[in-house]
Write a sequence for this structure.
């Protein structure tokens, strides 16, 4: 009986040990397979991230290209045409030097053409680099933009900020200015807003721009989906610019409150 | 019966001699050894020395169980250092530092209570449970942090697997070793020797692979 008890224990040890060995083998196999899968996933994520970065870069380059084309078209179509007309006028005046009345008329017309050319060149220059942004700084530049839009009587923009002398990296200021301009344009075009509130606040580490309006709101996910489907550059350029300056853009539609867009930019 | 005893004796001898293999590999890969592998490097040599001493004592029918009491403590300290040094790279391994003196206390207590002529099944069982836990935790940690790209090329994977297979395979043997030692029937000893020999040979082979893999970047 005692021997049988001992034999049973031996059998138990053998069977249990074999069971443990099988279990351990499964564990080791599981670890190997799981690790392989995780690495494959990680590799796929890195690939996706690289594709995303490439897409952003392509959009940035396309934006720059579009702006160049726009400037070239404006110069060629507007300024170029006016210069041609001016040249023709001066040739005509030269041929009719004895006809004082005609010469005076041609000169008056030419002054008008030169004034228009100056205005056009000024507008192109403002579009490329707004002078208020360069001369007065970021906050005042944005304030001036809001004033000009309000003057156009399309929408009222109430600007609020106590950061008069505030400044950060010029590149970031430029991109933020363009972002604000693009968001305001989109708000006017698509939301049927009549009043826009624009606020700029800053802490030691973060600059926060809040643009709220009384029109139809849209969430971040909805706008990202629109950006993906859209063939135009407007929406894509917003996210592309934000990513260039490490900004976080959020489109929020709170209940019973005005829709708003927040841009949070870290200040180094 | 005599043939069976010869076969088991042969297995035990092969198991003892298999300790030479990791010794050779450690000497070949000496310059590639990282700091956390050095305790296992030391353990390999101590294990083989203990095997030789044990063999000598067996030849002269001397009681050698007190050697195993001492060896278990040394083995635990060195293996614990392996895990301690490895995890130290990533976090403060307080638990490994805390368990070390506790184990030594358990081993010393068992030695004084049961005596030098008894099997140290309690300390070996505790040691086995702890090292099975350590090795499973290392797998979990490595997977969670994605620390190693190719596990099969990593020395840590092979060394850890060696520890896991050896101590999990021998766990029940260690638990029942005291009971088996009480019996006078040699078959129980041979069975014990066979299972332990298998896992010991496997342990030494996996350690050898682990040392060889230290050459890979």
């Amino acid at each position: 009986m005692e021997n049988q008890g001992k034999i049973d224990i031996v059998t138990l040890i053998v069977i249990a040990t074999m069971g443990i060995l099988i279990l351990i083998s499964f564990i080791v196999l599981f670890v190997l397979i799981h690790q392989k899968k995780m690495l494959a996933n990680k590799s796929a994520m890195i690939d996706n991230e690289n594709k995303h970065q490439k897409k952003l870069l392509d959009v940035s380059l396309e934006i720059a290209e579009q702006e160049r084309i726009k400037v070239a078209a404006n110069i060629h179509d507007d300024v170029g045409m006016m210069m041609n007309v001016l040249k023709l006028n001066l040739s005509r005046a030269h041929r009719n030097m004895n006809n004082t009345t005609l010469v005076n008329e041609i000169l008056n017309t030419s002054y008008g053409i030169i004034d228009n050319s100056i205005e056009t060149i000024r507008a192109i220059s403002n579009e490329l680099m707004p002078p208020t942004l360069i001369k007065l700084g970021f906050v005042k530049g944005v304030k001036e933009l809001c004033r000009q839009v309000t003057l156009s009587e399309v929408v009222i923009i109430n600007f609020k900020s106590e950061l008069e002398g505030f400044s950060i990296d010029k590149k970031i200021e430029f991109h933020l200015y363009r972002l604000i301009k693009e968001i305001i344009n989109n708000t006017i075009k698509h939301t049927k807003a009549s009043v826009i509130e624009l606020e700029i606040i800053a802490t030691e580490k973060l600059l926060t721009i809040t643009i709220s309006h009384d029109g139809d709101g849209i969430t971040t996910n909805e706008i990202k989906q629109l950006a993906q489907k859209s063939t135009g550059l407007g929406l894509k350029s917003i996210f592309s610019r934000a990513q260039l300056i490490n900004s976080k853009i959020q489109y929020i539609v709170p209940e019973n409150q005005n829709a708003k867009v927040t841009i949070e930019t870290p200040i180094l | 019966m005599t043939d069976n005893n010869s076969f088991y004796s042969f297995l035990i001898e092969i198991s003892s001699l298999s300790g030479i293999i990791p010794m050779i590999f450690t000497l070949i890969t000496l310059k590639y050894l990282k700091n956390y592998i050095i305790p296992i490097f030391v353990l390999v040599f101590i294990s083989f020395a203990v095997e030789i001493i044990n063999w000598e004592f067996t030849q002269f029918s001397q009681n050698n169980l007190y050697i195993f009491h001492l060896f278990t403590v040394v083995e635990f300290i060195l293996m614990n250092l392996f895990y301690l040094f490895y995890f130290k790279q990533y976090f403060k391994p307080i638990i490994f530092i805390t368990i070390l003196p506790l184990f030594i206390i358990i081993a010393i207590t068992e030695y004084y209570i049961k005596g030098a002529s008894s099997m140290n099944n309690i300390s070996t069982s505790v040691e086995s449970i702890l090292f099975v836990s350590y090795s499973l935790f290392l797998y979990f940690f490595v997977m969670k942090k994605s620390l190693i790209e190719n596990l099969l090329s990593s020395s840590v994977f092979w060394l850890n697997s060696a520890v896991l297979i050896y101590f999990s395979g021998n766990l029940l043997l260690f638990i029942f070793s005291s009971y088996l030692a009480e019996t006078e029937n040699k078959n129980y000893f041979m069975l014990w020797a066979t299972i332990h020999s298998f896992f010991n040979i496997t342990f030494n082979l996996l350690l050898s692979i682990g040392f060889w893999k230290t050459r890979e970047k």
Q: What stands out?
A: The first helix of chain B runs from residue 2 to 17. Chain B touches chain A through 26 residues (CB under 8 Å).
